[in-house]
Amino acid sequence: MEPRILFEHRRTIIPIVCFFFTLLYFALIASDPFMMHEILGLEPVYFPYLTFFRPFRVDLPFIGRVPLGDYGLMFPTDQLILMPLFIGLGIWYLIKERGLKLIAFLAACILAFKLLMATTQVLRILFDRQGSEGILVIMSFISLLIVGGAAFIVLLILKNTPTKVTTSAPSLWTRFVGYAIDLVLFVNIVLALRFESSGIIGRLLLLFLLVVFYFFFERIFFFTPGKILLNLRVQMVDGTVPDETAVMKRTFARLIPLEQLSFFNKSGGLHDTLSKTEVRKIEA
User: Fold this and answer.
1) What is the span of the domain harbouring residue 221?
2) Taken in order 144, 71, 206, 212, is the CA torsion positive or negative?
3) How far is the C-alpha of 49 from the C-alpha of 278, rounded, in Å?
4) Quick one: 130 and 193 in the same domain?
5) b vs e for 207-240, b when ≥16 Cβ sit within 10 Å of the residue's Cβ?
6) Mean pLDDT to the nearest integer, 117-144
7) What number is the average pLDDT over the span 65-94?
8) Counted domains in the chain
9) What sections of the protein cross the membrane (predicted)?
């Protein structure tokens, strides 16, 4: 199905996708959530900031008593937070045809989680790291195709929504906030996947995950999750769509130490200059 057709039928597709996530959510809470995590390739998130609650257990609606692991509160955030928001925003969109940006942001969070989870499982097998089980790789890719595929459709609809690109560049603080959102999302996904990043190989693999994250979103959709919330898009300096080479240059330039501070320069960040790209605000 062509992306333009997806946009034309958005009033039908968006509710269907949200209904799918609703069914998945209730399927998880109606069973052993952690068993379903293993079956569907969905993993719980650890909140290390809540380690002072470790001696206790938490009562959650429908779920029951949730254990507190050695790393803090073990929380199936992917379902308990993102899925209910999908439900509410889906209903809001169905009634008023608004809220697509927020729905797309949640879709981007889920898709990023599934993408990095599948990539992580492959890396664990290739480099014989902890958790390298073939069945987990298979389940993570099934989860990526089904759950990530539904989120992918939402992002395609947002991508093909008619917009007007402004000629003015976003403020420096706007870009910093967008970067901070992406960084927080990436860090929490890595923590959720319990990726072993110690040693030289572990750190290189962590950088590889960062490359996958940025390249995937900016090449296919021309935005990252943070840019969705702030109405930002990546384009070439001549206004055309960035190709693979340009996006790859942007992505690898981000690995330069302290490069993230360079976009406080009015001429743009170093990754903008090296790739001859720019970030512009859009008007829906």
Assistant:
1) 163-284
2) positive
3) 36
4) no
5) eebbebbbbbbbbebbbbbbbbbbbbbbbeeeee
6) 74
7) 56
8) 2
9) 12-30, 79-95, 102-123, 135-156, 176-194, 200-217
